[in-house]
Design brief:
The chain is an all-alpha fold. The protein contains 3 helices and no strands.
């Protein structure tokens, strides 16, 4: 990928807004994979960016 294409791709990205401060630990504990809240427990407790995963109880 050329430097110009890489620069354009980065400019088109939206800013990520951190809303984890609005979640209580009880909610995160009941949704460890983050499919309902959008915040997996690794992201909430360890500040690791992890993508939410749908689990069996969400079906």
């Amino acid at each position: 990928m050329s430097e110009k294409n890489r620069k354009n791709k980065n400019e088109n990205r939206k800013e990520i807004i951190d809303l984890t401060s609005y979640l209580s630990p009880d909610i995160v504990n009941s949704d460890p994979n983050g499919s309902y809240t959008g915040v997996p427990s690794e992201t909430f407790y360890d500040d690791e960016l992890v993508e939410p995963v749908q689990d069996a109880d969400d079906l």
